[in-house]
Fold this sequence. Notes:
- By secondary structure, the chain is mainly α.
- Helix content is 71%, strand content 0%.
- The protein contains 10 helices and no strands.
- The protein has helices at residues 2-26, 58-64, 70-94, 96-110, 114-125, 129-155, 159-166, 171-209, 221-228, 237-259.
- Helix 3 (70-94) runs parallel beside helix 6 (129-155), helix 3 (70-94) packs antiparallel against helix 8 (171-209) and helix 6 (129-155) runs antiparallel to helix 8.
Amino acid sequence: MTRLVAASGRIVLALVLLTWVVSLMAGYDVVADVHPKLAGLHPSTSSLLGTDHMGRSVAWRLVNASQAFVGPGLVAAAVSLLLGVPTGALSGYRGGWSAGVIRYLWAVVASVPRFVLVLLVCAIYGSDPAVLAVVAGLAFAPGLSEAVHTRISELRSREFVLATRAHGVSPLRTVAWHLLWVGCRALVLRQVLYLFAFVLVLETSLSYIGGFGIEEPRPSWGNMLAFEFGVHDGNPWAWAAPALAIWLTLAAAIGVASTLRERGRA
Protein backbone atom coordinates (compact mmCIF):
# COMPACT_ATOMS: atom_id res chain seq x y z
CA MET A 1 0.00 0.00 0.00
CA THR A 2 2.85 2.37 0.86
CA ARG A 3 4.47 1.78 -2.53
CA LEU A 4 1.17 2.45 -4.30
CA VAL A 5 0.69 5.73 -2.42
CA ALA A 6 4.27 6.80 -3.18
CA ALA A 7 4.07 5.87 -6.86
CA SER A 8 0.67 7.53 -7.35
CA GLY A 9 1.81 10.67 -5.55
CA ARG A 10 4.98 10.94 -7.62
CA ILE A 11 2.99 10.62 -10.84
CA VAL A 12 0.59 13.39 -9.78
CA LEU A 13 3.43 15.70 -8.72
CA ALA A 14 5.27 15.01 -11.98
CA LEU A 15 2.12 15.91 -13.92
CA VAL A 16 1.78 19.14 -11.93
CA LEU A 17 5.38 20.08 -12.76
CA LEU A 18 4.81 19.18 -16.42
CA THR A 19 1.65 21.31 -16.44
CA TRP A 20 3.66 24.21 -15.04
CA VAL A 21 6.31 23.86 -17.77
CA VAL A 22 3.61 23.71 -20.46
CA SER A 23 1.98 26.85 -19.05
CA LEU A 24 5.28 28.73 -19.25
CA MET A 25 5.81 27.70 -22.86
CA ALA A 26 2.25 28.06 -24.15
CA GLY A 27 1.84 31.84 -23.80
CA TYR A 28 -1.86 31.66 -22.89
CA ASP A 29 -3.55 35.07 -23.13
CA VAL A 30 -5.99 35.53 -20.24
CA VAL A 31 -7.52 38.64 -21.83
CA ALA A 32 -8.02 37.31 -25.36
CA ASP A 33 -9.67 34.12 -24.12
CA VAL A 34 -13.03 35.74 -23.36
CA HIS A 35 -15.93 34.59 -25.54
CA PRO A 36 -19.33 35.47 -24.00
CA LYS A 37 -21.21 33.56 -26.71
CA LEU A 38 -19.45 30.36 -25.61
CA ALA A 39 -20.20 30.82 -21.90
CA GLY A 40 -20.99 27.75 -19.81
CA LEU A 41 -20.26 25.12 -22.45
CA HIS A 42 -19.95 21.59 -21.12
CA PRO A 43 -16.93 19.40 -21.96
CA SER A 44 -16.69 18.29 -25.57
CA THR A 45 -14.13 17.10 -28.08
CA SER A 46 -13.33 20.70 -28.99
CA SER A 47 -13.19 21.91 -25.36
CA LEU A 48 -11.84 19.31 -22.97
CA LEU A 49 -13.32 20.77 -19.76
CA GLY A 50 -15.75 23.22 -21.32
CA THR A 51 -15.85 26.95 -20.56
CA ASP A 52 -16.66 29.14 -17.57
CA HIS A 53 -19.48 31.69 -17.49
CA MET A 54 -17.31 34.18 -19.39
CA GLY A 55 -16.61 31.71 -22.17
CA ARG A 56 -12.99 31.08 -21.16
CA SER A 57 -11.40 27.65 -21.58
CA VAL A 58 -11.41 25.85 -18.22
CA ALA A 59 -8.64 23.48 -19.30
CA TRP A 60 -6.23 26.22 -20.37
CA ARG A 61 -6.97 28.30 -17.28
CA LEU A 62 -6.40 25.22 -15.12
CA VAL A 63 -3.01 24.70 -16.78
CA ASN A 64 -2.05 28.38 -16.59
CA ALA A 65 -3.10 28.56 -12.93
CA SER A 66 -0.25 26.22 -11.98
CA GLN A 67 2.04 29.26 -12.28
CA ALA A 68 0.36 30.73 -9.20
CA PHE A 69 1.84 28.17 -6.81
CA VAL A 70 4.44 25.91 -8.47
CA GLY A 71 7.03 28.63 -9.09
CA PRO A 72 6.46 30.25 -5.67
CA GLY A 73 6.56 26.80 -4.09
CA LEU A 74 9.97 26.08 -5.61
CA VAL A 75 11.30 29.49 -4.53
CA ALA A 76 9.93 28.96 -1.02
CA ALA A 77 11.65 25.57 -0.88
CA ALA A 78 14.96 27.15 -1.94
CA VAL A 79 14.64 29.89 0.71
CA SER A 80 13.78 27.39 3.42
CA LEU A 81 16.66 25.09 2.43
CA LEU A 82 19.19 27.94 2.33
CA LEU A 83 18.13 29.21 5.74
CA GLY A 84 17.09 26.09 7.60
CA VAL A 85 19.52 23.36 6.59
CA PRO A 86 22.88 25.12 7.30
CA THR A 87 21.69 26.55 10.61
CA GLY A 88 20.20 23.23 11.71
CA ALA A 89 23.35 21.34 10.70
CA LEU A 90 25.61 23.81 12.50
CA SER A 91 23.62 23.80 15.72
CA GLY A 92 23.19 20.02 15.66
CA TYR A 93 26.85 19.23 15.01
CA ARG A 94 28.50 21.80 17.25
CA GLY A 95 25.98 22.09 20.08
CA GLY A 96 26.85 24.42 22.94
CA TRP A 97 26.09 28.14 23.05
CA SER A 98 25.99 28.53 19.25
CA ALA A 99 23.19 25.98 19.04
CA GLY A 100 21.33 27.81 21.78
CA VAL A 101 21.57 31.14 19.94
CA ILE A 102 20.46 29.67 16.60
CA ARG A 103 17.53 27.79 18.12
CA TYR A 104 16.46 30.85 20.11
CA LEU A 105 16.43 33.08 17.01
CA TRP A 106 14.39 30.56 15.06
CA ALA A 107 12.03 30.15 18.03
CA VAL A 108 11.32 33.89 17.84
CA VAL A 109 10.36 33.57 14.16
CA ALA A 110 8.31 30.41 14.85
CA SER A 111 6.39 32.16 17.65
CA VAL A 112 4.35 33.91 14.95
CA PRO A 113 1.92 31.44 13.29
CA ARG A 114 2.88 30.81 9.69
CA PHE A 115 -0.35 32.00 8.15
CA VAL A 116 -0.35 35.15 10.29
CA LEU A 117 3.27 35.89 9.35
CA VAL A 118 2.45 35.56 5.64
CA LEU A 119 -0.61 37.82 5.93
CA LEU A 120 1.37 40.42 7.89
CA VAL A 121 4.19 40.58 5.35
CA CYS A 122 1.79 40.58 2.38
CA ALA A 123 -0.19 43.42 3.98
CA ILE A 124 3.03 45.48 4.18
CA TYR A 125 4.81 44.55 0.95
CA GLY A 126 1.92 43.37 -1.24
CA SER A 127 0.81 39.92 -2.32
CA ASP A 128 3.17 39.48 -5.25
CA PRO A 129 4.02 35.78 -5.77
CA ALA A 130 7.70 36.53 -5.06
CA VAL A 131 6.80 38.03 -1.66
CA LEU A 132 4.53 35.08 -0.92
CA ALA A 133 7.30 32.63 -1.81
CA VAL A 134 10.02 34.26 0.29
CA VAL A 135 7.88 34.68 3.38
CA ALA A 136 6.51 31.13 3.11
CA GLY A 137 10.06 29.81 2.93
CA LEU A 138 11.03 31.94 5.93
CA ALA A 139 7.99 30.72 7.88
CA PHE A 140 8.96 27.09 7.28
CA ALA A 141 12.70 27.51 7.94
CA PRO A 142 12.45 27.23 11.78
CA GLY A 143 10.75 23.83 11.56
CA LEU A 144 13.25 22.57 9.00
CA SER A 145 16.20 23.84 11.03
CA GLU A 146 14.91 22.19 14.20
CA ALA A 147 14.28 18.88 12.39
CA VAL A 148 17.84 18.87 10.98
CA HIS A 149 19.25 19.87 14.37
CA THR A 150 17.46 17.02 16.15
CA ARG A 151 18.53 14.43 13.59
CA ILE A 152 22.19 15.48 13.50
CA SER A 153 22.31 15.70 17.30
CA GLU A 154 21.30 12.03 17.34
CA LEU A 155 23.87 11.04 14.72
CA ARG A 156 26.95 13.00 15.78
CA SER A 157 27.89 10.51 18.52
CA ARG A 158 27.45 7.43 16.31
CA GLU A 159 30.46 5.24 15.58
CA PHE A 160 30.67 6.15 11.90
CA VAL A 161 31.01 9.85 12.79
CA LEU A 162 33.74 9.08 15.32
CA ALA A 163 35.46 6.99 12.64
CA THR A 164 35.46 9.89 10.17
CA ARG A 165 37.15 12.07 12.78
CA ALA A 166 39.74 9.36 13.51
CA HIS A 167 40.55 9.10 9.78
CA GLY A 168 40.99 12.85 9.43
CA VAL A 169 37.87 13.54 7.38
CA SER A 170 37.10 17.26 7.48
CA PRO A 171 34.08 18.37 9.56
CA LEU A 172 32.57 20.01 6.45
CA ARG A 173 32.64 16.72 4.51
CA THR A 174 31.36 14.80 7.53
CA VAL A 175 28.40 17.14 7.94
CA ALA A 176 27.64 17.62 4.23
CA TRP A 177 27.92 14.00 3.12
CA HIS A 178 27.66 11.61 6.05
CA LEU A 179 25.15 13.54 8.15
CA LEU A 180 23.10 15.69 5.78
CA TRP A 181 23.05 13.67 2.57
CA VAL A 182 23.06 10.16 4.02
CA GLY A 183 21.28 10.83 7.29
CA CYS A 184 18.90 13.70 6.56
CA ARG A 185 17.97 13.79 2.88
CA ALA A 186 14.64 11.98 3.35
CA LEU A 187 13.81 14.20 6.32
CA VAL A 188 14.61 17.36 4.34
CA LEU A 189 12.64 16.21 1.30
CA ARG A 190 9.68 15.43 3.53
CA GLN A 191 9.79 18.96 4.95
CA VAL A 192 10.04 20.42 1.44
CA LEU A 193 6.94 18.50 0.34
CA TYR A 194 5.04 19.77 3.38
CA LEU A 195 6.17 23.28 2.45
CA PHE A 196 4.96 22.80 -1.13
CA ALA A 197 1.56 21.70 0.20
CA PHE A 198 1.52 24.73 2.52
CA VAL A 199 2.20 27.12 -0.38
CA LEU A 200 -0.60 25.51 -2.40
CA VAL A 201 -3.11 25.86 0.46
CA LEU A 202 -1.90 29.37 1.21
CA GLU A 203 -2.07 30.64 -2.35
CA THR A 204 -5.42 29.04 -3.21
CA SER A 205 -6.95 30.25 0.08
CA LEU A 206 -5.80 33.84 -0.44
CA SER A 207 -6.97 33.81 -4.06
CA TYR A 208 -10.31 32.31 -3.06
CA ILE A 209 -10.88 34.96 -0.37
CA GLY A 210 -9.73 37.80 -2.62
CA GLY A 211 -7.70 40.88 -1.79
CA PHE A 212 -4.48 38.85 -1.61
CA GLY A 213 -2.89 36.33 -3.94
CA ILE A 214 -3.66 36.03 -7.65
CA GLU A 215 -6.65 38.04 -8.81
CA GLU A 216 -8.80 37.99 -11.93
CA PRO A 217 -8.27 37.88 -14.83
CA ARG A 218 -5.10 35.89 -14.01
CA PRO A 219 -6.12 32.36 -13.06
CA SER A 220 -5.46 30.53 -9.82
CA TRP A 221 -7.13 27.32 -8.73
CA GLY A 222 -8.46 29.32 -5.79
CA ASN A 223 -10.03 32.19 -7.74
CA MET A 224 -11.32 29.77 -10.42
CA LEU A 225 -13.20 27.97 -7.68
CA ALA A 226 -14.51 31.21 -6.16
CA PHE A 227 -15.45 32.64 -9.56
CA GLU A 228 -17.59 29.68 -10.61
CA PHE A 229 -18.84 28.08 -7.39
CA GLY A 230 -22.58 28.67 -7.02
CA VAL A 231 -23.15 29.70 -10.64
CA HIS A 232 -26.47 28.17 -11.68
CA ASP A 233 -26.90 26.45 -15.05
CA GLY A 234 -23.18 26.78 -15.76
CA ASN A 235 -20.53 24.21 -16.53
CA PRO A 236 -19.94 22.25 -13.27
CA TRP A 237 -16.39 21.41 -14.36
CA ALA A 238 -15.51 25.10 -14.17
CA TRP A 239 -15.40 24.77 -10.35
CA ALA A 240 -15.07 21.00 -9.94
CA ALA A 241 -11.82 20.81 -11.98
CA PRO A 242 -9.82 23.26 -9.81
CA ALA A 243 -11.27 21.76 -6.62
CA LEU A 244 -10.21 18.28 -7.76
CA ALA A 245 -6.78 19.57 -8.82
CA ILE A 246 -6.20 21.11 -5.37
CA TRP A 247 -7.26 17.93 -3.58
CA LEU A 248 -5.17 15.62 -5.76
CA THR A 249 -2.03 17.77 -5.51
CA LEU A 250 -2.32 18.07 -1.73
CA ALA A 251 -2.95 14.34 -1.35
CA ALA A 252 0.03 13.58 -3.59
CA ALA A 253 2.46 15.85 -1.71
CA ILE A 254 1.40 14.64 1.73
CA GLY A 255 1.20 11.02 0.58
CA VAL A 256 4.74 11.01 -0.84
CA ALA A 257 6.06 12.82 2.24
CA SER A 258 4.48 10.25 4.57
CA THR A 259 6.28 7.39 2.79
CA LEU A 260 9.76 8.87 3.17
CA ARG A 261 11.95 7.36 5.88
CA GLU A 262 15.44 8.19 7.07
CA ARG A 263 18.07 5.48 6.73
CA GLY A 264 18.14 3.23 9.74
CA ARG A 265 14.55 4.06 10.74
CA ALA A 266 11.25 2.35 10.13
